[in-house]
Design the sequence.
């Protein structure tokens, strides 16, 4: 059986010197080889596993045939952020996890690498444009220019609606530009796709925070909210407000602004940094800390490696770069001096039986407390939407998220929502899919008569 | 330890250490090359075709083409090369040297001349007297040469096969083998003609006439000689089914041995040729791509195969499958089977389903993404075997005997 293609990646000691992408793409020869590994299944599980249901066997078949532009078109038809997704999707728990090659005791087809290949070819030729329906009178407002909002805006614009997108950030893109750092996906990828979407005749209003939904509803026939989750969850322990403790979202936002030469990232040069959490955000924060010059970087996680939600690829990269994993450890207190962090105190945890969700519970082991000297703490234990903003919208909430029905309609008629602000923080592809589905509902709603 | 199976074969009175010969082609262009091949372990070699000094030949720049499929580099190989440009005198000298260094290897001189009996007779005399063990008459080259009355021009005309074989036999002091072209309606008839004219053996196939491709960017046919091309000879893995068909037909029709050629790259290909009646096999394209060294695996693979199967000698497999090749009308119309999918092996790829649905009998039930295995509706299955062949999992689809209704 032919094994999977592994294009070269830069060695850790070289790549941590910059924030640049470090994995090479497939060249024509490798792409042909990798594409030939696809069995061309019929309605396969990989397609089902992709939230946007890209016709994966079809696009891979087109790569085999040498129709690269056609391959990119198949992807874009289902996912307008197909290029960005090719770089940032956690494919190990999406399409590639479901590749039938896994059942053949083989590695999955490198779907995301083939997807990147198709888009790099497309980029050289010019982004694919799809047809637009004739203009309609009705207008739609979109709050938040992340993947959810932009995907909804794009679908609606193609249907002929007049769409205006508001975002409190100076640039459209949401976390694609203010959270996901460029070693995963060069910002050019997202920027070219955002530019493409706006070119469908969408009006973008930057640096505008929306708080008055009623006012919007007076002017627009419908509103889509894709406001994301801009706030990090708190640990709720002593010392969390000391200087040198950063919520992960804020930290990564600052790093992004720093790299965009619009702000300043925390100075971590030569410092010891502890990151709390076991998700992809924790991994990103650890790798960003190294790139900012931190001397030692620890990830402190309550459970064991097996329970870690971060995808194995990211974990492996971080480990290679020198991030140290302190497992089965939970912080109980952050110590400081003169208002600044000096140490973190943790307790060892014991793994219990799996709960209903299958995750094993953990309990602190009495007397196992230990203390480590550190200079900074990054808290990456989950995120949630800006509660103030949500309250000002006056929408019904559930667990701090906007509540919607299965058609993405909220408690206020004409207001729809999707993406992280509804699902609590997932992925670019999920947000894109939800924006797309919500646009369908909005279209149905607007066709139904009102405004 | 069990003794190693014997892989030596007999051919026209000679004993060859193994059944692997180099066919007349670029790998046998010079004495130095043939000696290197012998050193590598080849049992014999047929020289690149030698022609009389008065017959001009040219080598076009360039003269090869290739067809791949997906990531497979080589499915078919094309050439529009002519026969050896080297003078007869050079060959005579080198044949002597080869035989001196490797007296036990089978050295065959390949010949071609214009369709004049005297020319064939003379050339056969000179080359056989130089010391080769056998001659091979090239009646097969389908490109270039036929435009000047040579190669396939002869192989496509029974009267020329007859008269020129007789002429060569008159001149030759050694056994003569006739190399046939597949570019005819009935190759068995051509082989019988050669047999009746006195040939001691036949060999098949020479290359299959074709057009390997067109460059869709430049619109040039390939291989391009300053923008133009001509039809050429196909060889390599893709021609193996044609070669095997020809060899089996010849083996069934004649009583003289046939040397099997066409698309042999591995010992498995060779075993197949031997099973359908080839006395030995000749190889060209695979050596052009990978070198003489492939003989190591050819010999070793064949030996291991024979010992695994419990054969003591390769001779036990020669022609073993031939009696099983019959006409369509003699096949059992009452033999009934249906496809059966192993639920536990099925990986739910749906490949069998879509094939049977769009290209078969709508006999497979499959619901994507339910985790359920594909299932054959035995009433509808016509046992065409499409699913069996396209399933990516070895042993997942098998046949189930059903009673005749
Ligand atoms: C560090 C980090 C790494 C990640 N890595 C990956 C990854 O590798 N792969 C992956 O698929 N996903 C990743 N994600 C998750 C992914 O970025 C999100 O799931 C996705 O961006 C969600 O899209 P969204 O449109 O719902 O929200 P966002 O991208 O968060 O966009 C929301 C937008 O709404 C704007 N907004 C909010 N409130 C208002 C308001 N009141 N008025 C106007 N504008 C407003 C915000 O400014 C923002 O631009 C990562 C997330 C983080 C934090
Ligand atoms: C480049 C090239 C040149 C050849 N020249 C000759 C030749 O001079 N005389 C001949 O009898 N056959 C010639 N052949 C045919 C081969 O001997 C052989 O019959 C054919 O290639 C099929 O075998 P294969 O698939 O192992 O290559 C030539 C083939 C190739 C590819
Ligand atoms: S053998 Fe042919 S007819 Fe029977 S299930 Fe397979 S594909 Fe269908």
Sequence:
């Amino acid at each position: 059986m032919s094994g999977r293609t592994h294009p070269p990646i830069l060695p850790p000691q070289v790549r941590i010197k910059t924030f640049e992408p470090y994995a090479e793409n497939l060249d024509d020869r490798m792409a042909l080889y990798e594409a030939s590994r696809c069995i061309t299944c019929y309605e396969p599980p990989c397609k089902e596993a992709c939230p946007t249901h890209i016709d994966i066997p079809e696009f891979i078949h087109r790569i085999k045939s040498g129709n690269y532009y056609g391959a990119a078109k198949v992807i874009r038809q289902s996912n307008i952020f197909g290029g960005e997704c090719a770089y940032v999707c956690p494919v190990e728990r999406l399409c590639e996890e479901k590749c039938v090659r896994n059942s053949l005791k083989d590695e999955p087809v490198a779907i995301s690498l083939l997807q990147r290949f198709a888009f790099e070819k497309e980029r050289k030729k010019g982004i694919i444009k799809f047809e637009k329906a004739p203009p309609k009178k009705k207008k739609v407002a979109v709050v938040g220019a992340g993947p959810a909002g932009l995907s909804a805006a794009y679908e609606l614009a193609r249907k002929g609606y007049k769409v205006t997108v508001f975002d409190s950030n100076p640039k459209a893109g949401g976390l694609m530009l203010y959270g996901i750092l460029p070693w995963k996906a060069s910002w050019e990828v997202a920027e070219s796709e955002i530019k493409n979407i706006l070119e469908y005749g969408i009006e973008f209003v930057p640096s505008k925070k929306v708080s008055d939904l009623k006012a919007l509803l007076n002017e627009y026939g419908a509103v889509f909210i894709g406001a994301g989750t801009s706030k990090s969850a708190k640990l709720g322990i002593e010392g969390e407000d000391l200087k040198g403790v950063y919520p992960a979202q804020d930290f990564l936002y600052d790093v992004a602004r720093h790299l965009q030469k619009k702000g300043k990232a925390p100075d971590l040069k030569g410092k010891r940094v502890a990151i709390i959490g076991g998700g992809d955000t924790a991994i990103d924060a650890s790798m960003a800390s190294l790139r900012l010059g931190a001397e030692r970087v620890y990830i402190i996680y309550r459970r064991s490696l097996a329970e870690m939600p971060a995808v194995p690829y990211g974990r492996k990269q971080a480990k290679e770069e020198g991030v140290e994993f302190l497992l089965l450890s939970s912080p109980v207190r952050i110590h400081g001096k003169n208002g600044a962090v000096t140490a973190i105190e943790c307790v060892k945890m014991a793994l219990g039986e799996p709960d209903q969700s299958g995750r094993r519970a953990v309990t602190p082991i009495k007397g196992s407390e230990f203390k480590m000297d550190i200079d900074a703490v990054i808290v990456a234990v989950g995120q949630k939407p800006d509660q103030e903003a949500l309250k000002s919208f006056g929408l019904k909430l559930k667990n701090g998220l906007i509540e919607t029905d299965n058609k993405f309609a909220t408690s206020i008629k004409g207001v729809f929502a999707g993406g992280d602000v509804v699902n609590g923080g997932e992925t670019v592809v999920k947000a894109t899919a939800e924006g797309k589905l919500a646009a369908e509902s909005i279209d149905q709603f607007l066709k139904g008569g009102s405004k | 330890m069990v003794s190693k199976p014997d892989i030596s074969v007999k051919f026209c009175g000679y004993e060859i250490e193994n059944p692997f010969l180099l066919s007349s082609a670029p790998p046998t262009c010079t004495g130095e090359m043939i000696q290197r091949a012998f050193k590598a372990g080849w049992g014999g070699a047929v020289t690149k075709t030698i022609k009389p000094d008065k017959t001009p030949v040219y080598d076009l720049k360039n003269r090869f083409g290739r067809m791949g499929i997906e990531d497979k580099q080589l499915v078919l190989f094309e050439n529009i090369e002519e026969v050896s440009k080297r003078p007869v005198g050079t060959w005579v000298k080198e044949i002597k040297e080869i035989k001196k260094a490797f007296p036990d290897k089978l050295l065959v001189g390949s010949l071609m001349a214009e369709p004049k009996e005297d020319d064939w007779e003379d050339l056969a005399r000179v080359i056989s007297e130089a010391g080769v063990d056998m001659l091979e008459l090239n009646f097969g080259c389908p490109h270039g040469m036929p435009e000047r009355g040579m190669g396939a021009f002869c192989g496509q005309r029974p009267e020329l096969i007859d008269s020129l074989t007789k002429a060569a036999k008159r001149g030759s002091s050694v056994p003569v083998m006739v190399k046939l072209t597949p570019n005819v309606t009935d190759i068995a008839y051509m082989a019988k003609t050669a047999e009746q004219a006195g040939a001691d053996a036949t060999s098949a196939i020479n290359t299959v006439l074709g057009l390997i491709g067109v460059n869709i960017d430049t619109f040039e046919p390939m291989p391009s000689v300053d923008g133009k091309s001509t039809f050429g000879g196909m060889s390599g893995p893709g021609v193996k089914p044609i070669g095997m068909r020809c060899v089996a037909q010849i083996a069934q029709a004649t009583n003289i041995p046939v040397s099997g050629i066409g698309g042999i790259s591995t010992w498995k290909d060779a075993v197949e040729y031997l099973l359908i009646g080839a006395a030995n096999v000749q190889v060209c394209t695979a050596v052009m791509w990978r070198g003489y060294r492939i003989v190591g695996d050819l010999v070793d693979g064949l030996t291991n195969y024979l010992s695994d199967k419990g054969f003591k000698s390769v001779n036990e497999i020669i022609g073993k499958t031939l009696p099983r090749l019959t006409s369509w009308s003699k096949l059992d119309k009452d033999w009934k089977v249906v496809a059966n999918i192993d639920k536990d092996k099925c990986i739910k790829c749906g490949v069998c389903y879509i094939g049977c649905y769009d290209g078969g009998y709508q006999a497979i039930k499959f619901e994507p993404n339910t985790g359920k295995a594909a299932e054959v509706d035995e009433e509808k299955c016509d046992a065409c075997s499409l699913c069996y062949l396209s399933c990516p999992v070895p042993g997942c689809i098998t046949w189930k005997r059903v009673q005749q209704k």
Q: What stands out?
A: Residues 139-230+385-446 of chain A form a domain with the FAD/NAD(P)-binding domain fold (CATH 3.50.50.60).
